[in-house]
From TrEMBL:
The chain crosses the membrane at residues 7-27, 186-206. Signal peptide: none annotated. The keyword ATP-binding does not apply. This is Chemotaxis protein CheA. GO terms for cellular component: membrane. It comes from Pandoraea horticolens. Residues 351-403 form the PAC domain. The lineage of its organism: Bacteria, Pseudomonadati, Pseudomonadota, Betaproteobacteria, Burkholderiales. It is found in: Membrane. The modification Phosphohistidine is found at H459. Gene3D superfamilies: 6.10.340.10, Histidine kinase-like ATPase, C-terminal domain (3.30.565.10), HPT domain (1.20.120.160), PAS domain (3.30.450.20). Its main location: membrane.
Length: 807
C-alpha cells in the first residue's frame, strides 16, 4: 500500500467515524440535527481538510525532491505528472476551504494560501526546467533556496488556516456539546473509538512516512556535508520514499564514479605536467601564478620560486619590453580573468607572443609565449593558460641560416656582374658616400641645397645598385634615401640630426663594404679585373705597335713626315686608357631588360653611334651616373607599353638611340627614343599647381621643358622603386655641371603647343674628355704612304676605338 493510499484510508476512516457519530446524534435528537449537520458536514470536515492540505503540501515536497534527484528523464516526467496532479488537488482543497470559510480571516488565509501555492509551483517549474536542461546542480541549489522558501511560506499559511479551522471546529463542538448534553456519553464513546482508530492509523503513518523522511533527510545532509560518497541511505520499503532513496543512492553512485574518474584525470595531468618538455602555467585572479604548473617551467626560468608569484614579475621581469607594452599586458590580463570570454578575444592582441628575458648571469633567453583562456559553462574566464617555450637556440639557428642565405644571395648578385663593372660600382658608391659624409659634417643645421645633394647622391647609389640587381644594398640605401626624402618635404618640420644621419650613412657604408669584402675575400676578385686589363692592354699594344711602325717607316730627313709621325704618336698616346661609349654604359644597358620587365614593357633596342670617339676616365664615370637616370626615365616616362605602341602603329618594343659627337669644342652625347615625347601639358599643369607660373602666364615650349630640371619635380602618377620621388633631371644637371658641362633638351618636331613633343636630350661635356679614334689612321696616312696598321692590328684597334652597333 502506498503512502497516498494510506492517507486516503485515513481520510475515509475519519469520514466514516464522523458519519457514524453524526448519524447517532441525529437518531438521538432531531431537534439538534441542523447544528449537528453543521459540525459533522461543515466545520469538522473543513478542519480535517485543512489537515489534508498540510499532507498534500508534504506530498508536493516529496514529489519535488523526486524530480530534482531523478536519475533519468522518465522519472522526471513521472514526477512532473505527479506534481501537476497534486497542484490540482491542492487547488480543489483550497476551493473547499474557501467554501467553508466562516470568517474574513479564513477567507484571507485561503487567498494568501492560493498566492503561496502559485509562487511555490512557479519555483518548482523553474527547478524542473533546470533539471530538464541538464543543470542538476543548479536545480538542487534552486530547490534548497527558492523552492524551500516558498514551501515554508505555504506551510505557514496552511498551518495557520488549519489552526483557524480547528478553532472554529472547537467552538462549534463546544456549542454542540452544550446543546447535546444528553448524547454526550454515546458520542464520547463513539468518538473515543474513532480517536483510538485514527491515532493508531496516525502512529502507523508517522512510523511509515514522517520518521523515514526525517531519517532520509538527515542521512542525505550528512553525506552531502562529509562528501563521503561511499555511504548509501538504506531502503525500508519500495514506496514513494523508497523510490526517492533509490534515486538518491543512484545519484551518489554516479558522483562516486565521476569523482574516481576526476581523480584519475588529475593524476594523469599531474604526470604530464611533471614530464612534458614545455613550460605551462595558469594565471588566476590577482594575476598570480597557480600552484600547479609544469616542472619544465623551473628549467626555463631557472628558479623554483614560481607558485603564487605575480605573472608580471615571473615572466616579464627583466624582459626587453618597454613600460608601455608591460602596462598593456598587465591591463589585458586583469581585463580577462573573471570576465566574459569575449574580453579575451578583444585583448588577445595586447598579450605579447615573444620576449627576450635576461637571466641572473646576463644571458638573454628568447621565450615564445602562447596565451589561451580557460572558461566555465557560462563562458566566464576562470584562468589564463600560458605556454612558454625557450626558443633561444632556434632563433640563433634561424638568424645564422638567414645570414648564410643572405650571404649566398649576395655572392650570386656579385657573380652576375663583371669584375670590372663591380669594381667601378664600388668606387663610385664609395665616392658618393664620402661626399655625403662631408656634406653632413659641414652643416650643423638643415640646408635645402645640402639635403637635395644628399638625396641625389643616395638616389644615384640606389639606381646603380638596382642596375646591377644588388638587392640587399638597394634595400638599405632605400631606407636612407627615404630619410632624405622626408627632410625635403616642405610641410614636415626638418629635424637635422647629424648623429642620426651619420649612423644611417654608416649603414650604407657597411653594406657597400660587405659587398666589397665578399667580392675580394670570398670570390678573390680584386681590382678592375683581368679581362678588362687584358682587353685594354691588347688595344694599347696595338696602338703602340702601329705608332712604332709608322715611326720606323718615316724618313728621318723629311721634316714633314717627322711632324706627322709626332702627331700620330701623340694621338696614339691619347687613346691609351680610353673606353668606347658602349663599354662605358655596358652595365646600365645590361640592366634595361630587367627594368623593362619590372615596368611591364618589352626590352628596347639600343643603338649606339660613337662616330669613333672614345671617352676618358672622368667622362666614363660621369656618363654612367648620368645615363643611369636618363635611360631609366626614358623607359618609365618615354616609351609606351606594348599595347599603346601597337595602337599607334609602332612596333611593341621601343628604340633608344645614343650618338656621340663634337660641336663647338664640346663633347655631345645625344639620347633619343621613339616614345610619346615630352609631356608638356602635364609639366605646365604641375608648374601651375606649385605656383611657379600662373594659369594665364604665357611660356614657350622650351621654357616649359626647363621645369623638369627643378629639384623635386616628377610627372610620375605614383611613387615606385623606379621613379616618382622627384629626383632625376636635377641630379643629371648637377652631375654635368660639376664637370663644367651642361644638359639641353632639343625638340625634333614642329608641333609647337602640342601636349607631347618629340625631343632629344643632349649632354655636353668639355672636349678634353673625349678622343677621336679615327685621327690615328688619318694622321698616319698623311704622314707616310703605307698601311697604317696591318689587318690583325687594325681589327684589334678598331674594336677599341669606335662602336656603331646595336645593344
Amino acid at each position: 500500500m502506498t503512502i497516498r493510499h494510506r492517507i486516503t484510508l485515513l481520510v475515509i476512516l475519519t469520514f466514516v467515524a464522523l458519519s457514524i457519530i453524526g448519524g447517532y446524534a441525529v437518531y438521538q435528537t432531531r431537534a439538534s440535527a441542523h447544528k449537528v449537520r453543521q459540525v459533522t458536514e461543515g466545520v469538522v470536515p473543513s478542519a480535517l481538510a485543512s489537515a489534508d492540505l498540510v499532507s498534500q503540501v508534504k506530498a508536493v515536497q516529496i514529489a519535488t525532491m523526486t524530480l530534482v534527484y531523478a536519475p533519468d528523464d522518465t522519472v522526471v516526467e513521472q514526477a512532473l505528472d505527479n506534481l501537476k496532479k497534486l497542484h490540482g488537488e491542492i487547488d480543489q482543497s483550497l476551493a473547499r476551504q474557501a467554501q467553508g470559510a466562516a470568517s474574513d480571516a479564513q477567507k484571507g488565509l485561503v487567498t494568501q494560501a492560493r498566492e503561496s501555492v502559485e509562487n511555490y509551483f512557479n519555483a518548482i517549474n523553474d527547478t524542473a526546467k533546470l533539471k530538464q536542461a541538464g543543470k542538476t546542480e543548479m536545480a538542487q541549489a534552486f530547490l534548497f533556496a527558492m523552492v524551500a522558501q516558498y514551501r515554508d511560506e505555504l506551510e505557514g499559511v496552511v498551518n495557520t488556516l488549519r489552526v483557524e479551522k480547528n478553532r472554529q471546529k472547537d467552538s462549534a463542538i463546544a456549542t454542540l456539546n452544550d446543546t447535546l448534553s444528553t448524547t454526550t456519553t454515546a458520542i464520547a464513546l463513539v468518538t473515543g473509538l474513532a480517536i483510538v482508530l485514527l491515532t493508531a492509523i496516525g502512529a502507523l503513518l508517522y512510523r511509515q512516512i514522517t520518521r523515514p523522511l526525517s531519517r532520509m533527510q538527515a542521512m542525505m545532509s550528512e553525506i552531502a556535508s562529509s562528501q563521503d560518497f561511499t555511504r548509501r541511505v538504506p531502503v525500508g520499503r519500495m514506496d514513494e520514499i523508497g523510490h526517492s532513496i533509490v534515486a538518491f543512492n543512484g545519484m551518489i553512485e554516479k558522483i562516486q564514479e565521476r569523482s574516481a574518474q576526476l581523480k584519475q584525470k588529475t593524476a594523469d595531468i599531474q604526470a604530464m605536467l611533471q614530464n612534458m618538455q614545455q613550460g605551462i602555467l595558469t594565471v588566476v585572479d590577482g594575476s598570480k601564478v597557480h600552484g600547479e604548473y609544469s616542472a619544465y617551467l623551473e628549467a626555463i626560468f631557472e628558479t623554483q620560486d614560481i607558485a603564487g608569484r605575480p605573472v608580471m614579475e615571473l615572466v616579464f621581469g627583466e624582459s626587453d619590453l618597454g613600460s608601455d607594452a608591460l602596462s598593456q599586458v598587465e591591463a589585458a590580463v586583469d581585463a580577462c580573468i573573471g570576465q566574459d570570454a569575449i574580453n579575451f578575444a578583444f585583448n588577445e592582441h595586447l598579450l605579447v607572443g615573444e620576449i627576450g628575458k635576461r637571466m641572473p648571469d646576463g644571458r638573454v633567453k628568447q621565450l615564445d609565449l602562447t596565451w589561451s583562456a580557460i572558461t566555465d559553462e557560462s563562458d566566464t574566464i576562470l584562468r589564463l593558460m600560458l605556454c612558454v617555450r625557450d626558443v633561444t637556440e632556434l632563433r640563433e639557428l634561424a638568424a645564422e641560416a638567414n645570414e648564410q642565405k643572405q650571404r649566398l644571395e649576395m655572392i650570386g648578385e656579385i657573380l652576375a656582374v663583371s669584375q670590372e663593372k663591380f669594381h667601378h660600382f664600388i668606387e663610385s658608391s664609395t665616392g658618393f658616400i664620402r661626399e655625403n659624409e662631408r656634406i653632413i659634417r659641414k652643416h650643423s643645421q638643415a640646408d635645402s641645397a645640402a639635403i637635395a645633394e644628399l638625396f641625389r647622391n643616395m638616389h644615384t647609389i640606389k639606381g646603380n645598385a638596382r642596375t646591377y640587381n644588388l638587392q640587399y644594398l638597394t634595400n638599405v640605401v632605400h631606407e636612407t634615401e627615404q630619410r632624405y626624402h622626408d627632410l625635403r618635404q616642405p610641410d614636415v618640420a626638418r629635424l637635422w640630426d647629424q648623429d642620426g644621419l651619420m649612423r644611417e650613412l654608416e649603414r650604407v657604408r657597411e653594406a657597400v663594404d660587405t659587398y666589397a669584402q665578399i667580392n675580394e675575400m670570398s670570390l678573390g676578385r680584386k681590382g678592375p679585373g683581368r679581362a678588362a686589363d687584358e682587353q685594354s692592354m691588347v688595344v694599347d699594344r696595338a696602338h703602340i705597335r702601329a705608332s712604332l711602325r709608322m715611326l720606323e717607316a718615316a724618313d728621318p730627313n723629311d721634316p714633314l713626315q717627322l711632324v706627322a709621325m709626332r702627331d700620330a704618336v701623340h694621338q696614339t698616346l691619347r687613346l691609351l686608357g680610353t673606353e668606347g661609349v658602349g663599354e662605358a654604359l655596358g652595365g646600365v644597358l645590361d640592366s634595361l631588360p630587367s627594368l623593362a620587365a619590372e615596368l611591364g614593357k618589352p626590352a628596347p633596342a639600343v643603338r649606339i653611334d660613337d662616330n669613333g670617339y672614345r671617352l676618358r676616365s672622368p667622362a666614363v664615370r660621369i656618363l654612367r651616373d648620368v645615363f643611369m637616370h636618363l635611360l631609366r626615365n626614358s623607359m618609365d616616362h618615354g616609351l609606351e607599353s606594348a599595347d599603346e605602341r601597337r595602337a599607334k602603329g609602332k612596333p611593341p618594343a621601343g628604340t633608344i638611340d645614343i650618338e656621340v659627337g663634337l660641336d663647338h669644342n664640346m663633347l655631345q652625347v645625344t639620347l633619343t627614343d621613339d616614345g610619346r615625347g615630352l609631356a608638356l601639358q602635364r609639366i605646365r599643369n604641375i608648374a601651375v599647381q606649385r605656383g611657379w607660373i600662373t594659369a594665364e602666364t604665357y611660356v614657350t615650349d622650351e621654357q616649359i621643358a626647363q621645369f623638369i630640371f627643378r629639384p623635386g619635380f616628377s610627372t610620375a602618377a605614383q611613387v615606385t622603386e623606379v621613379s616618382g620621388r622627384g629626383v632625376g633631371m636635377d641630379a643629371v644637371q648637377d652631375f654635368v655641371r660639376r664637370e663644367h658641362g651642361r644638359i639641353e633638351l632639343r625638340f625634333t618636331d614642329e608641333r609647337k603647343g602640342a601636349e607631347f613633343r618629340q625631343f632629344q636630350t643632349v649632354v655636353c661635356l668639355p672636349d678634353n674628355l673625349v678622343v677621336d679614334g679615327f685621327d690615328l689612321n688619318s694622321v698616319a696616312a698623311d704622314a707616310v704612304d703605307l698601311p697604317a696598321i696591318d689587318a690583325g692590328e687594325r681589327s684589334a684597334s678598331r674594336d677599341g676605338l669606335s662602336q656603331a652597333d646595336k645593344v
